[in-house]
Amino acid sequence: MKIRLLTVLAALAAVLSACGDGKASAPSVAQAADAGAVFSTAFPDLAGKEQPLKQWQGKVMVLNFWAPWCPPCREEVPDFIALQDKYRDRGVIFVGVAIDEAQSVQSFIDETGINYPILLGGMNGVELSSKVGNRLGGLPFTAVIDRSGKIVSTHVGGLSKAQLEGTLQPLL
After folding, report:
1. Which of 20, 71, 119, 121 is 20 to 30 Å apart from 50, CA to CA?
2. CATH number of the domain where residue 73 is located
3. Is the Cβ–Cβ distance between 143 and 153 less than 8 Å?
């Protein structure tokens, strides 16, 4: 219970500091991001099975750190679902790393029909998001990784469909 409370408080503080006025920043190129950390990490899925992120190496990966209690996270999910459908056959994979407990995450998935892998990150997810460029610790945080494994874009705050498509198109 203490871990969950600390996780929620840390993530909430990060969200409030990163998204204070509700305006998200423009996508940026990751400067000091560590793509190697992505492909050496594994998180459990909702069934408790460890899923290594390296299984998606060679695809264009949209790695999204989020939580079901985060309003901008909730707002971007329908666009992510649509874009996963649109670009799946072109080698794009969305991967959500949830910073919450399995029951809350599963309820949100059931409500929205998320069509891409969702993993449970906990504090390890917060740590990985920091390693790949989330200096503010805010949610949502999205990193786009190209087919060669390079982080080409990071973004703190909600992403619109148009913003994300603008990042994805050159990578296809």
Report:
1. 71
2. 3.40.30.10
3. yes
Number of domains in the chain: 1
> pLDDT per residue over 125-157, tens digit each?
999 999 999 998 999 999 999 999 999 999 999
Strands 42-44 and 50-52 come out as antiparallel
CA–CA distances in Å: residue 40 to residues 48, 104, 129, 134: 18, 27, 13, 18
What does the DSSP assignment read for the chain? -HHHHHHHHHHHHHHHHHSTTSPPPPPB--SS--HHHHHT-EEEBTTS-EEEGGGGTTSEEEEEEE-TT-HHHHHHHHHHHHHHHHHGGGTEEEEEEE-S-HHHHHHHHHHHT--S-EEE-HHHHHHHHHHTT-TT--SSEEEEE-TTS-EEEEEES---HHHHHHHHGGG-
**The pTM is what?**
0.84
CB atoms within 10 A of CB 110: 9
